[in-house]
């Protein structure tokens, strides 16, 4: 560490309150931001205020254990400094510039003050260029600016660090410049894992890491960002190279400043933040800028307390960023990773003059579709998707497919998900979104678009037109040609009304007299057709059939549920059809057949040989040859057997259930 002591200006500790130390100097007071050493250099203190002519107040950058009143303090005569030069590449440092990677101190480096001014406006560059990340949702809707600042906003556990790590993996390999990672107030484990991952990926030679993690005092966390930015400015201004500056987490910088402000006794502002938060944040963010010699592209993770985007820390950070990527806890709970809220996220680069007219119009159409889906969610939750208009249903389908297509497997999470990471170009991302909006993948299930790279991978996961295997227990029933009860027929099949039309697939009717019928096969209307299961023979002529059955049966006609009547002889009868019964008509389901030959009956059918069916409440047809109602005393046509008094018929429901059960067992 290049911060040597100045023995010409000694001092003594007069008060210690946590990390705040008051020191008295008899000769002259050290200036603001001067670095002081106590306990033989074990304790570093930065001067932040001058209390009077002989006392200063500073914040300790190291733990203050063992520090007491009367301990001597030495003035270094300068400010906190950081090492710069080519020798710092592939190394890891703390806030003082000490190597913490268990390797010897870097050689051939220079030391510069960490407190520097932003570049003047005359030296800044105004060129705008897209910075591709290989992540579909970011490149399409919220593109990053080369030389700009992008922020990843989100609460705890929504994937900020994972997304930042993925960007490092995707961009460092294609980054021709230098990458600097600054860890502020985050987990030490993440820093160690990042170091090993970058070393294994072979990108460490062009990378520098600086850490002031959460185990450090607030003073160290408050200054580590300045130390890392000093290194980035060296590569931009002296080496004339582009720099990728990654910060995790910028909120911890604000939080450390809040702790320091409270320890110094300053009056807090809203929600306990320091009154100088805007000034402190601007002093750091404005140094991240493009110049004529190089550019610093910064991506920063921003913790949002309690997922409240109106928090002062988040609000002040928003104003410094060109791209704001908001992570949603709701999307994370649905498994849609990266969990980017595509409607709340925004980018100043998403304009026709920068990204192009085609890209801009496509991004607007995607946002419009997602916004309409968001508005329809309340209606869907209350009434269901079926109650929407056809166009609204199409919008919902497109939006849901877009949401799943914009998910992406990460290289950083391969060991957890078991899915190989994908790097998708901007061209493939735009092509996939456009084809989804054209309904090219409307026949694909949503799962085919989930966690893929380019859109063509969906065709490999699912091929439309594949016949789905469906098992139907009734379709497997086999016909028995020996006159014994056969399989049940399939209900609700509407035949075309012609004689001998088959009502069930794969059933071949037999039109010959005396031949047994296949399951659901229509007979030709001739006698000697076999009866179905649960058929009750020896019924008297004219007994009642199924309640509410209104047959229009003619001689030899086969009855079938939901069959439309035909005016020709031997046509199928339909339940609830008006009767136009003539002698010899077949009975409906649940009719009791006579022993004499008649037409084939359906399951639970009780056929009658000569007399027509009589329904409890039939509506007679105007046909003079039709049979009268059950309470009629005689027939309207010669040769018709008089109908006896109607007998009470059992309810058909148990018989229908019994018939269906027997048919399946058969």
Defining key terms:
alpha/beta; 4 domains; 6-stranded antiparallel β-barrel; 26% helix; Bovine Mitochondrial F1-ATPase, ATP Synthase Beta Chain, Chain D, domain3; 666 residues; 15 helices; Rossmann fold; Thrombin, subunit H; elongated; 8-stranded mixed β-sheet
Task: Describe this structure in a few short sentences.
This protein is α/β, with parallel strands linked by helices.
Instruction: Give the tally of β-strands.
Output: 18
Unreliable runs: 467-640, 652-666
Rg (CA only): 43 Å
Average pLDDT value? 77
- The number of domains is 4
Going across the biggest sheet, name each strand in turn.
8-14-13-15-16-12-17-18
Q: Strand percentage, roughly?
A: 5-15%
Number of helices: 15
**What structural class do you assign from the helix and strand content?**
alpha/beta
Portion of residues in helices?
25-40%
Query: What is the makeup of the main sheet?
Result: 8 strands, mixed
Molecular structure report:
- This protein has 666 residues and is of the alpha/beta class.
- The chain has four domains: 6-79, Thrombin, subunit H; 149-321, Rossmann fold, CATH 3.40.50; 358-461, Bovine Mitochondrial F1-ATPase, ATP Synthase Beta Chain, Chain D, domain3, CATH 1.10.1140; 484-666, no CATH class.
- It is built from 15 helices and 18 strands.
- It has helices spanning 136-141, 160-172, 188-201, 218-237, 250-263, 277-285, 312-318, 329-333, 352-355, 357-383, 390-405, 414-417, 426-437, 457-461, 652-665; strands at residues 6-17, 20-25, 34-38, 43-50, 55-60, 72-79, 81-84, 92-93, 110-113, 130-131, 144-145, 149-154, 178-184, 207-212, 243-248, 296-303, 323-326, 346-347.
- The strands form four sheets. It has an eight-stranded mixed sheet, sandwiched between helices. A six-stranded antiparallel barrel has the order 1-2-5-4-3-6. Strands 7-9 form a two-stranded antiparallel sheet.
- α10 (357-383) crosses α11 (390-405), α10 packs across α13 (426-437) and α11 (390-405) runs antiparallel to α13.
- The longest helix has 27 residues, at 357-383.
- 44% of the residues are buried.
- Mean pLDDT is 77; it is low at 467-640 and 652-666.
């Amino acid at each position: 560490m290049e911060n040597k002591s100045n023995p010409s200006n000694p001092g003594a500790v007069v008060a210690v309150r946590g990390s705040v130390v008051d020191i008295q100097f008899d000769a002259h007071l050290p200036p603001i931001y001067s670095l002081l050493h106590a306990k033989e250099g074990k304790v570093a203190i930065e001067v932040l205020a001058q209390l009077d002519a002989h006392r200063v107040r500073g914040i300790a950058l190291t733990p203050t254990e063992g520090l007491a009143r009367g301990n001597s303090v030495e003035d270094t005569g300068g400010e906190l400094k950081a090492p710069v030069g080519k020798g710092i590449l592939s190394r890891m440092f703390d806030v003082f510039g000490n190597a913490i990677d268990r390797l010897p101190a870097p050689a051939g480096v220079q030391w510069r003050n960490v407190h520097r001014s932003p570049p003047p406006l005359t030296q800044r560059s105004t060129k705008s260029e897209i910075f591709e990340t290989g992540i579909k949702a970011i490149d399409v809707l919220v593109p990053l600016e080369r030389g700009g600042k992008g922020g990843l906003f989100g609460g705890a556990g929504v994937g900020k660090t994972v997304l930042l790590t993925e960007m490092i993996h995707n961009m460092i390999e294609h980054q021709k410049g230098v990458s600097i990672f600054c860890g502020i107030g985050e987990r030490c484990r993440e820093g160690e894992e990042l170091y090993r991952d970058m070393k294994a990926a072979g990108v460490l030679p062009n990378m520098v890491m600086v850490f002031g993690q959460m185990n450090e005092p607030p003073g160290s966390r408050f200054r580590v960002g300045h130390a890392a930015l000093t290194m980035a400015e060296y590569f931009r201004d002296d080496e004339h190279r582009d720099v990728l500056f990654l910060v995790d987490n910028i909120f911890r910088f604000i939080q450390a400043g809040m702790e320091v402000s409270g320890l110094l006794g300053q009056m807090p502002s809203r929600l306990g933040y320091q009154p100088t938060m805007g000034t402190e944040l601007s002093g750091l963010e404005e140094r991240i800028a493009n110049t004529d010699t190089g550019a610093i592209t910064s991506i920063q993770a921003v913790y949002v307390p309690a997922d409240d985007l109106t928090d002062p820390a988040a609000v002040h950070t928003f104003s410094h960023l060109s791209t704001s990527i908001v992570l949603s806890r709701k999307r994370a709970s649905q498994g849609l990773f990266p969990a980017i809220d595509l409607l709340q996220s925004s980018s100043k680069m998403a304009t026709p003059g920068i990204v192009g007219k085609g890209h801009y119009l496509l991004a607007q159409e995607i946002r419009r579709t997602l916004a309409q889906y968001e508005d329809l969610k309340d209606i869907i939750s209350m009434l269901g998707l079926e109650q929407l208009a056809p166009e609204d249903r199409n919008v919902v389908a497109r939006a849901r497919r877009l949401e799943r297509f914009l998910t992406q497997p990460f290289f950083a999470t391969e060991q957890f998900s078991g899915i190989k990471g994908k790097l998708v170009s901007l061209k493939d991302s735009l092509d996939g979104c456009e084809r989804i909006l054209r309904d090219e993948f409307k026949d694909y299930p949503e799962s085919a678009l989930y966690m893929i790279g380019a859109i063509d991978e969906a065709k490999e996961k699912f091929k439309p037109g594949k016949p789905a295997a469906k098992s139907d227990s009734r379709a497997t029933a086999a016909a028995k040609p020996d006159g014994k009860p056969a399989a049940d027929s399939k209900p609700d099949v509407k035949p075309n009304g012609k004689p001998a039309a088959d009502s069930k697939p794969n059933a071949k009717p037999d039109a010959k007299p005396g031949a047994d019928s296949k399951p659901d096969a229509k007979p030709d209307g001739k006698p000697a057709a076999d009866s179905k299961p649960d058929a009750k023979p020896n019924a008297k002529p004219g007994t009642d059939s199924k309640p509410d059955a209104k047959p229009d049966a003619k001689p030899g006609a086969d009855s079938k549920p939901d069959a439309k009547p035909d005016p020709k002889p031997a046509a199928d009868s339909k339940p609830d059809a008006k009767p136009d019964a003539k002698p010899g008509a077949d009975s409906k389901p649940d009719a009791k057949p006579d022993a004499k030959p008649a037409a084939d009956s359906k399951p639970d059918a009780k056929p009658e040989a000569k007399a027509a069916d009589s329904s409890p409440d039939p509506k007679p047809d105007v046909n003079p040859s039709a049979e009268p109602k059950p309470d009629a005393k005689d027939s309207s046509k010669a040769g018709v057997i008089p109908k006896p008094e109607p007998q009470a018929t059992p309810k058909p429901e148990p018989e229908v259930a019994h018939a269906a059960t027997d048919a399946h067992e058969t």
